Amino acid sequence: MPAKADQLIAFIKRQRDLLNRERDAEIEQNALLLTNCTPKLLEQKGLAILGLGVVNINVGLGGKNLIELERPAAYHSSPLFPPHNLRPGDIARIEENSTGTKPKGVSKKQKAGANTPATSGRQIEGVLYKVSDTRIVLAVDPSDPNTNEDIDLPERSRIVKLANSVTYDRMEKALNQLERMVLPPSEAVVGRYTPPMSKLVEVLLGISAPSERISLENIVFFDPSLNGSQKSAVKFALESQEVACIHGPPGTGKTHTLIEIIRQLTSVSSTNPKPLRVLVCGASNLAVDNVLERLLALPVAKSESRLKVTRVGHPARVMSDDNVLGSTLDMKAGRSDEAALAKDVKDELEAALGVLSGKGKGAKGKSPRGLERKKMWEEVRELRKEYRKREGGVVEGVLNDSQIVVSTCHSSGGRQLYKQSFDVVIIDEATQAMEAVCWIPVFKAKKLILAGDPMQLPPTILSLNNKRKNKQGPGSTKAAGKKAPDQKAKVGSKEKATAPDPPPVQVPQDEDRNADPSDESDEEGDAMMKDDDDIPPLAGEAGTGAETPASGESKPPTVKKLRRGDLVPPRTLETTLFDRLEKMYGPGIKRLLNVQYRMNQKIAEFPSKVIYHSKLRSDKSVASHLLDDLPNTSAEDDDETQEVLRTPVVFIDTAGSEYYERTEGDHDEGSKCNENEAMVVKKYITRLVDSGVLPTQIAVITPYQAQVTLLASILRPVYGRDMEIGTVDGMQGREKDAVIISLVRSNEKREVGFLKDKRRLNVAMTRAKRHLCIIGDSSTVQHGGLFLKKWMVWLEANADVRYDIVE
Ligand SMILES: Nc1ncnc2c1ncn2[C@@H]1O[C@H](COP(=O)(O)OP(=O)(O)OP(=O)(O)O)[C@@H](O)[C@H]1O
């Protein structure tokens, strides 16, 4: 068998194994939570909202039932939901809210990793469709053969987040398609017809090298304000024939650059004779909505017609912007002439569902029972059939008419886009998406443009964290140190029972994300690569393939010298497509955006120097901006106020104060918090606010969920929800005028745990525009590896260092 086929088999197999492991870890963790936690605890963990009542049932696209829930005034003093992690696109279940008891546990379907919403008795599963501060809408597909279509909803409900296996199913499908495309029939899984392999797929897999770029000399840029590196990235993306990567460090205008690329691709010019069709994807709904909002806000010249943009899937927030809502497929399909024909049926259908659920107009809180109910359901079934028939073709018509379709990578694998093809697919935040999810849209286009920053946080991988934990032994203090980012890890961090570790696979030695950056080569690209991408052995090389040896013991890897174009099976799912392409083709596959428009240059100095090898420059519009320049602040004559408003970086060093951390729960794997540090945060915020800084201009971030909870309990009563308090992971992609980082770790053993991940620290230290205040214990933190040590040394030399702000 040719060497390349070996590589392809090993690569696909490895991706599949890792995905299966991740799916198992997620399902297992979810199952443990649902069976071990009371509903109240689930709510505290952000995985459930209790005490809800159904207010409405509508019919959505595809004849889905849209069940709307709110907090009834009878049970709650405020209609606002407590903080939670339920997002549009999540799989969730409505359950009867019987307080105090344990939930009924995970359904068989969930345990088996089934992918379709289901109902059982008074539980209904579906996909979250919309989430606002006071209302949550679940879309339930009654056409699912496993679904009991009768909506017999409990009077008082709760909604609980479940493991999302739909995404894994789509990723698996994408891998199957890839396998059928690239492998001889004897090697591929049996399946239906698959289109022949495109040049793009060949390049992504290293079967062919990228074609020579087509030189474009006279590009007229729509946005004259683009800087040199942005223009060069746009040109590079347009000239590349199959794939182009754009590396955008924090605040360098990745999205700005992508918007220009989209405008260039979709318009006719001397360099682009025919407008192209573009699919814009992202790792999250939030990422794609960000691009969508900017696309829709573009000015339209008199000679131009407005870009035809359609958003497929679930917008992340309930947008105040009518443009955004109006661009969703649901709204567009509803507005079309053909849709008017379906409206009567839809109205009738909704009225019948209202009566059946006891929530409709003439229902008076009672729903029909027995024979009457059965008869009515038959009517509903007929109406739904008719509705789907009339709706048929409307969706396709809207999509065929769209020049730009915007969706998450995952949603691009849905039914609605099944027959759609595009000239170019763009993936924003590609360094936060698992490689397999990127393959879902890749099959739909001839060319791929990826944007992201491999030096910020990668996708969060649960199975990796389980593996690390296990490797170091339960109860080992190191285990807590290597634990998952709290954003996701918090889900199970407090539980005594942890998900069983999946079987080991043969992978290289444990990564060291925190090696000294100065150890890296200076060549651009290589210099910025993370240090966790050693080459795992290829299948066949070690005689066992890249999988579990029969003994179950991992053999030490045979590390082979990487040749350009070699396809290397990933070691973990943290290796993204962006990372892999950079490793496979070298720095020539990407362009770096090198001017940042966010941070005062003092705030940007350390990350630029140590993470981006001094390549990141600060635009003059932000280089010296301070809190003092905000219209709502005034330093006047007060020295203390001046100090706060005119200083870009403050370090409050609690070394020697014995402000020790505390572990939440009764063993060392719990999340950490630090009460004394939280009090310092509070005092510092008072000082900022007294100086005129608005709570909306401040964010408090910390790596630990337990510290977030503690800080929220102290700060929310004073500042409400105006001030943002969150984990570092949750702040990626965001910015605030003033950011306070609470580092939490302070202990005699000098352990810093996952704080030392330089990508997490990079995200933390690059969120602030005008003022960054770090609060931490240097005597502990400096022992967390070279990166943290360098940061502490830099802070001591460059920040306004304070030792106590208590008095
Ligand atoms: N050439 C430019 N001239 C002036 N301002 C710019 C330019 N490019 C980007 N900006 C501004 O910089 C800020 C960051 O841009 P954008 O949101 O596109 O960056 P990003 O790289 O996507 O951000 P993030 O780091 O959050 O991922 C925005 O306020 C944007 O308007």
Can you put this structure into words, describing what you see?
The structure is a single chain. This protein is an alpha/beta fold and 807 residues long. Helix content is 36%, strand content 15%. The protein has 27 helices and 24 strands. It has a seven-stranded parallel beta sheet with strand order 10-11-9-12-13-8-14, with helices on both faces. α19 links the parallel β15 and β16 (617-618). The model is unreliable at 100-121 and 470-560 (pLDDT under 50).
Strand-residue proportion: 5-15%
- The number of distinct β-strands equals 24
Large-scale geometry: globular
The whole-angstrom Rg is 27 Å
The helicity comes to: 25-40%
pLDDT averaged over residues: 79
Instruction: Count up the helices.
Output: 27
What would a concise description of this structure say?
With 807 residues, this protein is an alpha/beta fold. It is built from 27 helices and 24 strands.
Show the helix and strand layout.
Blueprint (H helix, E strand, L loop, with lengths): L2 H34 L2 H6 L3 E12 L5 E6 L20 E6 L11 H4 L7 E2 L2 E9 L3 E6 L16 E5 L3 H18 L16 H6 L23 H12 L3 E5 L6 H13 L11 E5 L2 H12 L12 E3 L10 H5 L2 H7 L1 H21 L12 H22 L2 H7 L3 E5 L15 E5 L6 H8 L4 E6 L9 H10 L5 H5 L4 H8 L83 H9 L4 E3 L2 E2 L4 H10 L6 E2 L1 H4 L15 H7 L3 E5 L8 E2 L8 E2 L1 H16 L7 E5 L2 H15 L4 E4 H4 L4 E7 L15 H8 L2 E9 L1 H4 L4 H13 L1 E3 L5
Parallel strand pairs: 8-13, 8-14, 9-11, 9-12, 10-11, 12-13, 15-16, 17-23, 17-24, 20-21, 20-22, 22-23
Antiparallel strand pairs: 1-2, 1-7, 2-6, 3-5, 3-7, 4-5, 5-6, 18-19
Helix pairs in contact: 1-4, 1-15, 4-14, 6-7, 7-8, 10-13, 11-12, 22-23
Bound molecules: adenosine-5'-triphosphate (ATP).
Adenosine-5'-triphosphate (ATP) binds next to helix 7.
Family: Belongs to the DNA2/NAM7 helicase family.
GO molecular function: 5'-3' DNA helicase activity; ATP binding; hydrolase activity; RNA binding
Protein name: DNA helicase
